[in-house]
């Protein structure tokens, strides 16, 4: 019998998780169930309750299930009820326990069990569930028009995007992340089931590998272009920058214009298809010029080590070491008025695009910030116009959501708005 060796990424993540206990929406080392063999991180739990929602600064887990939903009722009370039931179910599932408690898979033989069952005996796998409200939730249906924060405005049309109308918007979003894809899927599936009759899924995206680092304890993963992604990201340990750029009303950030959003953040999601076949035909030199970093080491083309700072003024044989159209030059805070963001995206594939015979795969880009129209939007405008990477990308899905602050132990999602 061959022993199953934990993957290198798994080992690193495990160490990371232990080291990161207490950071941000802290990861607790309390195991709710025995860890599955060969799965060193799987028994870890991330507390659902706290001052911040989990799933923002939590060390990025391996898998994502993202769902945008529409509210199908006009009764605010029905939605409040679902949000309360969602809070209880999410709190339970994040400890590795079925919806409805330890007996949630059983019950009366003539009724469906409270829990669908596919995560039974799987560990909690660092499951986090993060809720967001879309701008459309603040239309006339629930009388919330004057409660919409100014920053929660629909994204404008952006250069070069080719959005699929079936992958845009949503009244609500649920971001479930876990180190086991079945645990993440189980969470969204059960919440959708609880919401039946009040909410319905508008669009959904599965992600299978993190493309960012959100803690100094994590190693840098690679995206589907084969490049290290997340090197220059904001991290849970960058507390002053998180206050300034991520948390609404944080120190050094603009004041919150709605009390219910203080301590929350905004999530922008972009489904970005990579034109993988073209990329794979590009030479190594061209790929590195386009990104502005070396493929193997991840070092900026102006340096030698992954974490060397970008030197945008350095020239080699009279030419900029980092090309004028390189992605990192055009995305860097130094060339964008100092703007920073917390990237927390995932690789995705939806198999074959039968219309073209090419792979439908790329990056499900998720970014958190306290003022997306001054952060994501201007940077993306610039990238969409000048970035050499744009030739290899197609933005096909999009959404913006306000993620309220965390839920206290005796509280529920929807507080300050519906409850
Ligand atoms: C609007 C913001 C951004 C989008 C959209 C975006 C898409 C995107 N990025 C990569 C690959 C890499 N990005 C890298 C760095 C990087 N990207 C952004 C912003 C967006 N990227 C920022 C702010 C940065 C950091 C720049 C800096 O300060 O140096 C890198 C380099 C490694 C890293 O620092 O993370 C890669 C690689 C892809 C493939 C992509 C769309 C599919
Ligand atoms: Fe990028």
TrEMBL record:
SUPFAM superfamilies: Dimeric alpha+beta barrel. The keyword Oxidoreductase applies. Residues 97-119 are annotated as: Disordered. Residues 220-407 form the Dyp-type peroxidase C-terminal domain. Keywords: Heme, Iron, Lyase, Metal-binding, Oxidoreductase, Peroxidase, Signal. Residues 53-208 form the Dyp-type peroxidase N-terminal domain. InterPro entries: Dimeric_a/b-barrel, Dyp_perox_C, Dyp_perox_N, Dyp_peroxidase, EfeB/EfeN, TAT_signal. Its cofactor is heme b. Binds 1 heme b (iron(II)-protoporphyrin IX) group non-covalently per subunit. It catalyses: heme b + 2 H(+) = protoporphyrin IX + Fe(2+). It comes from the Bacteria. The keyword Lyase applies. It is found in: Cell envelope. Residues 98-109 have a biased composition (Gly residues). Its EC number is 1.11.1.-. Involved in the recovery of exogenous heme iron. Extracts iron from heme while preserving the protoporphyrin ring intact. Belongs to the DyP-type peroxidase family. This is Deferrochelatase. The gene is efeB.
